[in-house]
Design a protein that fits this description.
6-stranded antiparallel beta sheet; 3-stranded antiparallel beta sheet; 3 helices; disordered C terminus
Length: 178
């Protein structure tokens, strides 16, 4: 799904009404399901292009509670020729491109390209990778609405799962920046 930034961010703030019906037990079941997901090395039978790395920088720019749900937005900078490791978002989210280019590789779907002021949906519990094909850095806004203190992603790519958590719960994070 491609959309303009304004429309998708409005959608992000309407999701809590849907999630508010998600009990603590069902939220924990979702997290347990994601934690049990097997490690993989491909999406749709192919390794996504680019070097799997954390974002060059990742900064939490919003973290608020609304209707019992946690709304978090991160500003990430991804260098050209790199990609997020294959990962899963337990509760889904949205990525909006501020500048540069991004391509979402999503298991079971064709790659989705997005440029400045365009967004794509990251469906819940679906393996994916976000690639910056270049030529320059990509500045991205990643938005998530989750139960309180729930993780926003889990790396499931063989060999890079030790990269850890780019989106720390409730903290500013610096990725691989120098």
């Amino acid at each position: 799904m491609r959309a303009r930034i304004g429309r998708v961010l409005v959608m992000a703030f309407t999701v809590p009404f849907f999630l508010s019906s998600c009990s603590t037990n069902s939220a924990q079941r979702v997290i347990d399901e994601v934690n049990a997901y097997p490690l993989v090395s491909t999406l749709n039978g192919t390794v996504p292009p680019g070097e799997p790395t954390l974002a060059h920088t990742s900064q939490e720019i919003l973290n608020v509670m609304r209707d019992g749900q946690q709304v978090r937005v991160y500003r990430d900078v991804r260098e050209a020729g790199t990609r997020a490791p294959i990962h899963i978002h337990p509760f889904g989210g949205w990525t909006c491109v501020v500048s540069g280019q991004a391509v979402l590789y999503l298991d079971g779907a064709e790659p989705q390209e997005a440029g400045p002021n365009e967004c794509f949906l990251m469906p819940a519990r679906t393996p994916m990778s976000n690639v910056n094909p270049g030529p320059g850095p990509a500045v991205l806004l990643d938005s998530f609405v989750t139960p309180p203190d729930a993780p926003v992603w889990r790396i499931v790519e063989v060999g890079v799962e030790s990269l850890g958590n780019e989106f720390a719960t409730g903290h500013n994070v610096k990725g691989n920046h120098q």
